[in-house]
## 1
Amino acid sequence: MSKITKLGLGIVSFEGNEHLKNITNELRDACDHIVVCLQKHSYHGEPIKDSDVEEVETLKKFGYIDNIIWFEPTDMHEDKKESAARFIETDKRNFILDYLEKEVGCSHSLIIDSDEFYDKVDFEKAKSILSANENIHISYCQYVNYYRDYCHVMVWPFDSYVPFITESKYRFVFEHGHFNRPSDPTRRYWIPEEKKECCVIPWNIVKMHHLSWIRLNIEDKMNAWSSKKLFGDYEELKKAMLQRYYNYKDGMNAIIMFNVPGRSVVVNKLSRQFIHPKFFLSEKITEPYASSSNDNGN
């Protein structure tokens, strides 16, 4: 990977914005430009909540992010029927990449969702490794999925990966991206060069902490989820997910929207809490961002 001269962090956002204060507080010093991309309606037509917009505007006001951009979905994927939302989600990710590369001038970018958390120490370590290696152009890392709080994790039947820091010139292509390990098809990079290898950062160096099932309102996530129309039994599945989520006790499996056997995943309780986000989810930001060199750390 060529030297990282300017790193952009782009955040795909609609609901679940309560995590953004912790995500951006953790990575503010490590990124040269942070942008949150919103849209007025979900992939299925639900309007964005004023509270989610206000959350992002507050982050900009107090310096946690640099800008807010708005994405307008088009009807260019109408012929894709149930999968149209997934194609549009890929468009949104590329829209952010266009902004970071062409308008901000970022040499490298990382595109994440609004519930994806990185530990700042691990992030800086991985960033330094990539910046020193001129032969790496695209990188991925593994992730761990949390369930309801920071001490319970879901155990997938396979390892899962997300893109990490990558040269800004690359774009995602739904269905035809190049990555031969389990990953979200809306964010697989198209690699035009003959060599289609990606660097995978080892788990013990950096990992993404997926806070997907930690929400102030879990039903908002379910309603906005881009893949929900791929499940013919979605409404029944939603009822089962909510019932399990609100009545969960240690030893139970999670019921989730995902292609795993029986829509059921084992949940393990961690021996201790490994990540320590600074703010409570319901907490409101009232003061400007303070550099990590001046706070008490995590």
## 2
Amino acid sequence: MAIFSICILFSWILLGPDEAQYWTWSQALDWGYYSKPPGIAWQIGIGTKIFGQTEWGVRSFSIVFGFFQALLLYELASEAGLSSRASFWSGILMAFCPIGIIGSFLAITDIGFLLCWTAACLCVVRSFRKNQEVQPHWIGFWIALGALFKWPVYFFWIFTFPYMRRIKKPAIIGFCISLLGLLPSLWWNMHHHWATFRHVFATLEGGHGEKESNFFSFIGSQIVLLSPVLFFLLCFACQKWIKKKSLLPPSIAFCGIVTFGSLTAAALLACFQKIQGNWAIFAYPTAIVLICWVLFDQPGKRIRLVTWGFGFSLFFTVILALILSSIYPQWNPFKHNQGWTSLSEELDWHGYDPERHYLFSDKYQTASLLSFYAKGQKRAYFLPLDNIRKNQFSYWPSLQEERKGQTGYFVWVENAPKLETDYPEKIPFYQQKLGKFFENVEYLGLVPLIQKGNFLIKGALIFRCHNCREIPPNESSLY
């Protein structure tokens, strides 16, 4: 936990687009938001209230959640009957695999969701150890909390209901308790045309781009999330689990069902449509228990492999990323998190004054980052210039409603290699598009945000737009 605290305080890794977006949500706390339940905004809101509107404030609770996630993995492995050494390494691998490192460093919805999922798994496994019926009330409680972060937590009932055949009434009560986690989002959606549900359904249908399968890229993303060595060990553990499943204790059988079932279902779906890499992330707490069960507590112990897995995981997620960032800057995995302080300085140099001007973009991610890093931390605006899907900014007061007759700065940001090919066409494109909404559009230039030698890795186009007209943009029908 201390390691990640130091990384946040002294790192050059600034907020990413999603983190900045969630921060803007936290500045307007509500019962729900366009694409996610309210948990991440509440989490960031508390953190920034305590530690200020800084990267540390935004990410502070991620560190706490990551710490407890590792502790829960230790407890889960122990309750599943693993030895003390295997349980210890379960917690260590959870903390230092890519999922654990990213979840403890970045303010994302996955870590809060994963914490609640793991706690629900612990309830089931503990019942097995005590030779008791599964307790659906506590499971419902953890699922309700997890639903404040991500709705896929409800998939947990699929793995649990088969163990509740003799306790139907408590199972129904537990399920009803879990539905309480939906109430905040339902309340918000009732007043916003069911936007979140429309967005989720559009995403499940493949979004608004090409609806194609991505089986191999999905598998590749799982290898990255767990690290190559640990993923290989997981495949080995699943093979052992399948071979012995009829002889396994209930706790290990349950861990295997959750892991193997989740990953298999996601991989099969990826054969027919695009599946995001983190959609099956809930498979990995029980996956790590399976790995340590095979490595430590089965005949032919392979304890040395776990040290290789641990070491390569650290190398893969930290050292390798830093090496690639310095030698091949265009491959820098953190380029989306860099350059924003330089952009703030450039805006200041071009005369931006938060008391007299405003900032806006045609991408909600850029608008979010401008909101956090520009002087004054005033919320920027989203102006849809093309048929772009709705987002949270679509449900806040618009530019035309609040800034009629005023001057603002429009910003377009892009990374290499698209930057070099796209920006010459974007200059006349934006001058023409913005001219509909402003009396005068002044192009201020292309400013470098990340540069290594003569190679421009990230840059921004800045336009000064005078006298905002009361002409609303076309409302998108896309979710």
## 3
Amino acid sequence: MSFERGVASPVATLLGDYARAQVHAFLLYRLVAFPDEYEPIKGASYGMAVLRFVPRAIWKNKPLNPKVAAGSAIQGYVGISERSKRQYGLAGEAMLNFSYYGIIPAFAVFGMFLGWFRKKLATMAPTDDRFFLLPLLIWACAFTVNMELDNIIFNVLRLGVLPFMVIYFASVKTPFVSSEL
């Protein structure tokens, strides 16, 4: 929580902790004021978010998440003991990957996904069993702005695999064969 004079202020908590405003402002400041000090990672954190679930037993020399190294570099950390532990959110991860040019496309892709999701939701039949998965998907949409892609994928898998399997296997339609000849 953000504190002002030892007391958590609701405005500071909402704008600071939940909106990641101070992180985004600092990243933007560093990108504009010192453009030559940071080299964007060109989408590496998005690719590694998907590959995060490959175990080290299969991929022996799996690299660390490039988002941690990029976040440390843009904030001026130099040693391995000084690693950034910040959460960047949608805009922050876009800045780490593509500088400030990535912010608008990231939100555009997110907006197109929300439009597709709303259209799918409007065309689903009221008896469709996939309605049971909607709370998880709505949660993922709500927190996409505040979380990075690897955290979203991890939480959707962690919270959604078992309900998805139960709904999928409980909803399988079997053909009805009449015993009448």
## 4
Amino acid sequence: MRNPYKVDKAKIIKKEKQNDITYLFRLKLSSVLQKNFEFLPGQFMQVGLMGFREAPISISSDPKDSKKYIELTIRGVGRITNKLISLKTGDEMLIRGPFGNGFPEVKDKNLILIGGGCGFVPLRSVIEAYGNDKKIKMQILIGCKDKNTLFFKKSFNQWKKKHDFNLILEKGKLPGFAKKSGFVTDLLDQPLLENSLIFIVGPPVMYKHVVQILLQKKIKPEDIYLSLEKRMYCGQGVCQHCAIGTKYICKDGPVFSYRELNNMLYSL
């Protein structure tokens, strides 16, 4: 059994700018660890550097590539993350994980992915995991502040070609993709794929409004999954920072169905 407290080195083999404060890092793990590495979309890594603390970072790569590399999308918003995004190709990070429970496996269902802002990061793994499965139809709904805060813009053309891809910006437009300004909830006015699981990641303020609309559309609570990526610290449910009643976001989540959250008496 792998020691969850054991720190491993990960070498940066590719660094790609997403916007002014966000970078996609492709990491190569040690040969033994990489050979046996597996993860579920929605899981996260603890990432740090000597002399700095760790930060929980969602994995954003294709699970099928996990034996070759993993990709982390890091946004510089604090001391540790700003230090991490300053690293260059060839530098090393310290990692632990993966941690938590990810999104459920998709069988005999379609997928609706709803992302707000930087919350869309772990949903990229879902797109990569199921994007070539011809049995699964996928509807992608993204809301973001403006074109300068978007991630994964290089993938938009491919996603639009293969899936029902929809983008909306709070401010401005993006030719070919975002035709009007507004919020991700405005994208829910259109017909949604039937027989679908719905995966939602974004700021907490978005969840209440999105879920309310979905329930009005007669979507079952057990078919709605949300990632509660907040207050996570140790990844093991030890520090108590992410406790919700008897559950821990970092250990029992971060992904929960809306049915589970209701049973936990958690209020969006």
